[in-house]
Amino acid sequence: MSKPLSFQQVILCFQNYWAEHGCLIWQPYSEKVGAGTANPATTLRVLGPEPWNVCYVEPSYRPDDGRYAENPNRMQMHTQLQVILKPDPGNPQELYLGSLEAIGIDRRKHDIRFVEDNWESPALGSWGLGWQVWCDGQEISQFTYFQQAGGQALDPVPVELTYGLERIVLVLQDKRSVWDIDWGAGRTYADVLKTPEVEHCTYDFESADVQRLTEMYKLFEAEARACLSHEPPLVIPAHDYVLRCSHTFNVLDARGAVGVTERAGYFAKMRDLSRQVSGAYLAQRQREEYPFLKSGEGRVESGESRPTSRPLGVQFPTSDTHTMFLFEIGVEELPAGDLTAAITQLRELAPKMLDEARLEHGEIRVYGTPRRLAVLVQDLAPRQKSVERQVKGPPAKAAFDSLGAPTKAAEGFARGQGVAVADLQVQDLEGGKYVVAIKREEGQPAAQVLAERLPNLIAALKFDKTMRWNHTNVAFSRPIRWLIALLGDVVIPFEYAGVSGGRTTLGARSNGSPEIALQSATDYMDALRDQRIIADVDERRAVIQKQIAQLAESVGGEISEMPGLLDEVTNMVEQPTALLGKFEEKFLALPRDVLVTVMRKHQQYFPVQKNGQLLPYFVAVRNGGRRHLDWVTHGNQEVLRARFADAEFFFQHDTAKRLDDFLLRLRTLTFHEKLGSVLDKAQRIEKLTSHIAEMLGLSEQEAAIASRAAHLCKADLATQMVVELTSLQGVMGREYALRQGEPREAAQAIFEHYLPRYASDQLPASLPGVVVGLADRLDSLVGLFAAGLAPTGSADPFALRRAALGIVQVLVENAAPFSLRRAIEAAAEVQPASVLSNRDAILNDVHAFIVGRSRTLLLDQGYRHDLVDAALAEQGDVPYRARVAVQALTRWAARPDWNDILSHYARCVRITREFAESFPLDIPLDPEPMTHALHDAYQTCAAQVSLHSTVDNFFNAFAPIAPTIAKFFVDVLVMAQDQAVRQTRLALLQRIAALPKGIVDLSKVEGF
Amino acid sequence: MSKPLSFQQVILCFQNYWAEHGCLIWQPYSEKVGAGTANPATTLRVLGPEPWNVCYVEPSYRPDDGRYAENPNRMQMHTQLQVILKPDPGNPQELYLGSLEAIGIDRRKHDIRFVEDNWESPALGSWGLGWQVWCDGQEISQFTYFQQAGGQALDPVPVELTYGLERIVLVLQDKRSVWDIDWGAGRTYADVLKTPEVEHCTYDFESADVQRLTEMYKLFEAEARACLSHEPPLVIPAHDYVLRCSHTFNVLDARGAVGVTERAGYFAKMRDLSRQVSGAYLAQRQREEYPFLKSGEGRVESGESRPTSRPLGVQFPTSDTHTMFLFEIGVEELPAGDLTAAITQLRELAPKMLDEARLEHGEIRVYGTPRRLAVLVQDLAPRQKSVERQVKGPPAKAAFDSLGAPTKAAEGFARGQGVAVADLQVQDLEGGKYVVAIKREEGQPAAQVLAERLPNLIAALKFDKTMRWNHTNVAFSRPIRWLIALLGDVVIPFEYAGVSGGRTTLGARSNGSPEIALQSATDYMDALRDQRIIADVDERRAVIQKQIAQLAESVGGEISEMPGLLDEVTNMVEQPTALLGKFEEKFLALPRDVLVTVMRKHQQYFPVQKNGQLLPYFVAVRNGGRRHLDWVTHGNQEVLRARFADAEFFFQHDTAKRLDDFLLRLRTLTFHEKLGSVLDKAQRIEKLTSHIAEMLGLSEQEAAIASRAAHLCKADLATQMVVELTSLQGVMGREYALRQGEPREAAQAIFEHYLPRYASDQLPASLPGVVVGLADRLDSLVGLFAAGLAPTGSADPFALRRAALGIVQVLVENAAPFSLRRAIEAAAEVQPASVLSNRDAILNDVHAFIVGRSRTLLLDQGYRHDLVDAALAEQGDVPYRARVAVQALTRWAARPDWNDILSHYARCVRITREFAESFPLDIPLDPEPMTHALHDAYQTCAAQVSLHSTVDNFFNAFAPIAPTIAKFFVDVLVMAQDQAVRQTRLALLQRIAALPKGIVDLSKVEGF
Question: What is the ipTM of this complex?
Answer without folding.
Answer: 0.80
